[in-house]
């Protein structure tokens, strides 16, 4: 029975950072790196990696429909759906940068108040929904003819090159501008700024696409930290688990999608990236290696889609006995991959 761990941004994105994992106790990871078969491939997004695992064809994922399937609440029926996530736009020198909601500290009450107002003011557009304080949706009658950029590709970057393009772009740019003006005058933002918090001053629309048809799950058990992975599992007929550590005696093949490094890497937060890497070592890698040694699993696979490369590691049951293969530090990979 194989265990497959998906660990995006296991490789620190800043190539010039010396020894990003230096000083961390990572004996399980280093043993796996030393004994496993390692393949490197071009960079790949987590979304594309998961899409392939669940049998989706190449091309943009219908991210909104999949992510909404992974929310705790049952999705309302009817219409098409877009992600309409709350963001903060701010100037840094001459560039207008976009910050996603991960650092905005939006409360449930604030999200509900803003979404209620959006539905009252922009009822002709569709129906807005806050499934979580940082994950909002727009339900509309039909999807626009536009190409949208995923939020993760825009966060922390100048937003100009990533605006939607296509036949309906003029209408959606106008809508975005009207929403920004409306948000600027909203009392929630006045209260947030008085409290020293950045305002919610725009929405980022993205993730368009028809809901996928029948999906196949790559494993009988799926542990998923993120909503997209939970949505894929749900659509494939598997109830996703939110376990915080590996159950080494699960008795079946397992896929675990561990996204906790991704946010820290996106904003180059090295201190928290190191903290989360140590937690993955303790809660997932060390138990997986012990399960392999004990014969509970016959293969351990790790896929790490990173900004500089995609790492694929495979360690079979007998591989850990290759005592002549010495442990390998993660930083040796950091230095060797341009």
Describe the structure.
The chain has 338 residues and is α/β, with parallel strands linked by helices. It folds into two domains: 2-56 and 214-336, Alkaline Phosphatase, subunit A, CATH 3.40.720; 63-206, no CATH class. Helices cover 34% and strands 20% of the residues. The protein has eleven helices and eleven strands. The chain has helices at 27-35, 46-53, 63-69, 108-121, 151-154, 169-184, 187-194, 227-235, 260-266, 270-294, 330-336, and strands at 2-6, 37-41, 80-92, 95-99, 127-132, 135-140, 202-206, 221-224, 254-257, 299-305, 310-316. Strands 2-11-10-1-9-8 form a six-stranded mixed β-sheet, with helices on both faces. Strand 3 and strand 4 (95-99) form a beta hairpin. The model has no long low-confidence stretch (mean pLDDT 89).
Q: Which key terms come to mind for this protein?
A:
Alkaline Phosphatase, subunit A; alpha/beta; 338 residues; six-stranded mixed sheet; globular; 11 helices
Shape estimate: globular
Order of neighbouring strands in the sheet with most strands: 2-11-10-1-9-8
The percent range for helix content is 25-40%
**What characterizes the major β-sheet?**
6 strands, mixed
Report the end-to-end length measured between terminal Cα atoms. Answer: 34 Å
Q: Please give the CATH architecture of the largest domain.
A: 3-Layer(aba) Sandwich
Rounded mean pLDDT is 89
């Amino acid at each position: 029975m194989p265990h497959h761990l998906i660990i995006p941004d296991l490789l620190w994105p800043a190539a010039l950072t010396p020894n990003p994992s230096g000083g961390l106790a990572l004996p399980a990871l280093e043993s796996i790196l030393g004994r496993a078969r390692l393949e490197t491939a071009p960079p790949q997004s987590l979304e594309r990696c998961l899409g392939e695992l669940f049998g989706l064809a190449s091309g943009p994922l219908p991210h909104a429909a999949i992510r909404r399937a992974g929310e705790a609440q049952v999705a309302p029926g009817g219409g098409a759906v877009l992600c309409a996530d709350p963001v903060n736009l701010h100037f840094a020198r001459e560039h207008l940068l976009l910050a996603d909601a991960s650092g905005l500290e939006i409360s449930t009450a604030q999200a509900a108040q803003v979404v209620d107002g959006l539905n009252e003011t922009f009822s002709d557009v569709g129906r807005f929904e806050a499934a979580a304080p940082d994950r909002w949706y727009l339900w509309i009658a039909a999807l626009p003819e536009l190409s949208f950029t995923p939020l993760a590709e825009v966060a922390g970057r100048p937003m100009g090159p990533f605006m939607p393009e296509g036949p309906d772009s003029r209408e959606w740019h106008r809508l975005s501008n009207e929403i920004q003006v409306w948000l600027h005058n909203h009392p929630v933002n006045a209260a947030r700024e008085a409290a020293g918090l950045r305002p919610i001053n725009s929405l980022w629309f993205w993730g368009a696409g028809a809901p996928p048809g029948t999906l196949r799950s790559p494993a009988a058990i799926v542990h998923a930290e993120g909503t997209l992975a939970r949505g894929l599992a749900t659509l494939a007929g598997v109830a996703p688990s939110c376990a915080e550590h590996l159950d080494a005696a699960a008795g079946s093949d397992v896929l675990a999608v561990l996204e906790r490094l991704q946010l820290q890497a996106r904003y180059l937060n090295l201190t928290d990236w190191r903290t989360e890497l140590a937690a993955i070592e303790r809660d997932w890698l060390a138990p997986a290696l012990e399960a392999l040694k004990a014969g509970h699993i016959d293969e351990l696979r790790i896929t790490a889609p990173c900004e500089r490369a995609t790492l694929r590691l495979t360690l079979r049951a007998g591989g850990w006995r290759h005592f002549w293969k010495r442990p390998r530090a993660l930083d040796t990979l950091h230095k060797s991959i341009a």
